[in-house]
Amino acid sequence: MEEKKNIKVGNKTRKKTNKKVKLNNKFKILILVIIITLIICGIILFTFLHGKDDEKPTTTITITNTIDNYGYSLTNNATDYYKELFEKLKKTLDNENVNDELYASLVSQLFITDFYTLNNKIGNSDVGGLEFFLESSRDNFALKAKNTIYKSVKSNLYGDREQNLPEVTKVSVDSITKTSYSYNGITDSEAYNVKTSVTYDVDLGYPTEVRLTLVHNGSKIEIAKVN
């Protein structure tokens, strides 16, 4: 009789153990289902948000005017003041006999306006005024600009940047004098030193006095040095 009781007790123990195993397995399956569900939800959410970013209209830069013989171009994001200077440059260069001093003055004004106007730039690699800079030194100048004045410019690819950046509203040529210049394969006995005063829409601490050296490079007058 005692042996039979032991057998019954053993059966009950095995049944309880089996129930625990089944419960543990169900719990593990439930946890696994929850984890998989969370992963799927995460993927869906990421795809949705990423898709939203893709749907945002990106800032598009297009050319609206050119000075073909000199390779200068005007883009749709240029400021009103820059557009005004560009039109003056175009009229100056359309003349049969170009006034070099006026040409150098306008290049100085255009370069400074585009270079120090940061609120219309797409990001920190969108360096302004490069088309007016001496071609042989252009890449080095752009690299230096990216690591200094343009370093803090945030991306505005989607037109939603919230950053206070300067816009040049006026560049006055205080003086322009001839000089000799020789550097990096360029020698010009009739180069120009130009001193300018710069006005911004808001004073954010950017340079208000800029000195430039300009040289003749073929038919063009280009920026060789910025102080």
Describe the structure.
With 227 residues, the chain is an alpha+beta fold. It has two domains: 1-55; 63-226, no CATH class. 42% of the residues lie in helices and 25% in strands. The strands form two sheets. The chain has a four-stranded antiparallel sheet. It has a two-stranded antiparallel sheet with strand order 1-2. The N and C termini lie far apart (110 Å).
- Tally of DSSP β-strands: 6
What is the domain total for the residues? 2
The helix-and-strand class reads alpha+beta
Low-pLDDT runs: none
Distance between the termini: 110 Å
Percent strand: 15-25%
Q: Major sheet, described briefly?
A: 4 strands, antiparallel
Q: Estimate the helix proportion, in percent.
A: 40-55%
Large-scale geometry: elongated
Order of helices and strands: HEEHHHEEEE
Count the helices. How many? 4
Question: C-alpha Rg, in Å?
Answer: 34 Å
- Mean pLDDT over all positions: 89
With strands numbered from the N-terminus, the spatial order across the biggest sheet is: 3-4-5-6
Summary keywords:
single chain, 227 residues, alpha+beta, 2 domains, four-stranded antiparallel beta sheet, two-stranded antiparallel sheet, 4 helices, 6 strands
Question: Could you outline the blueprint of secondary structure elements for this entry?
Answer:
Elements: H1 2-55, E1 63-67, E2 72-75, H2 80-94, H3 100-116, H4 138-146, E3 168-183, E4 186-200, E5 209-217, E6 220-226
Antiparallel strand pairs: 1-2, 3-4, 4-5, 5-6
